[in-house]
Write a structure and sequence with these properties.
- It is a single chain.
- The chain is α+β, with helices and mostly antiparallel strands.
- It contains 4 helices and 5 strands.
- It has one domain: Severin, CATH 3.40.20.10.
- A hairpin with a 6-residue loop joins strand 3 and strand 4.
- It starts with 8 loop residues before the first strand and ends with a helix.
Amino acid sequence: MYKAKSKSYCVFRLSDSMKEIIPDLEVDERLESDPKVEYKDLVKVVAEVSRGQPRYILYDVQYTLPNNQGDRRKILFILWSPDDTALLKDKMVYASSKSSLKKLEGVSDDRQVNDMCDLCEMVESYVEEQKKKAR
């Protein structure tokens, strides 16, 4: 079993044969304490690693609740499937194969993102959703 909680985020891809999900990149530590900077780093890394192709991302989202309610962590599964550069066949294979990673222990939610600008905004809005739920 893959230990997603030990990483800040992990990027996965399908093998060249399109039959296995393999790690593409693992980031062990948080480089920034400011979440907005970290989200932007995630966007930059995904853009470089994916080269315009679909990817799976497991992201260890950490956030602090207001009024001293403490820190929280959630593992968010993201299907990155760019509309403008990925082939339709690849997008379909990635979409149909995502259930394997979504079922990993600890994954609390999943999202699909099709535009690089939306990736950062989606993570920020996810954190805000979680804070509202905790109230």
